[in-house]
Amino acid sequence: MARIETPKRIRGTQDIFGDEQRRFAHVLDAFDRVRRLYCFQRVDIPVFEATGVFARSMGETSDVVSKEMYTFEDKGGDLITLRPEFTAGICRAFITEGWQQHAPMISASNWWNWRKRPFCGRS
User: What is the largest CA-CA distance in the chain?
Assistant: First the structure.
């Protein structure tokens, strides 16, 4: 009889629960209090965008676009990418949602990068 393999977390992900979840929630609460204190609005953007949002802003041949993005084709044939950074998605939201003026905004969320050490070599 075949042995059923126990599922494993995907590399680069983590499960946060118990004491660690309480500490995590405490940090997010502090972040939110400071955000409100300085009158920053919260903005949450989708975890994925049309690939063109990133390709246009970073350049089709950039390392991020060519090597570091996770892109897939959806059922309708559109190319979708998990966000590798926030700027392009924020700009897309600014344009498509009709925001009339700049407002201080902040986001604390996930982004995806497929390098083993994404900040290595950055200053």
Answer: 65
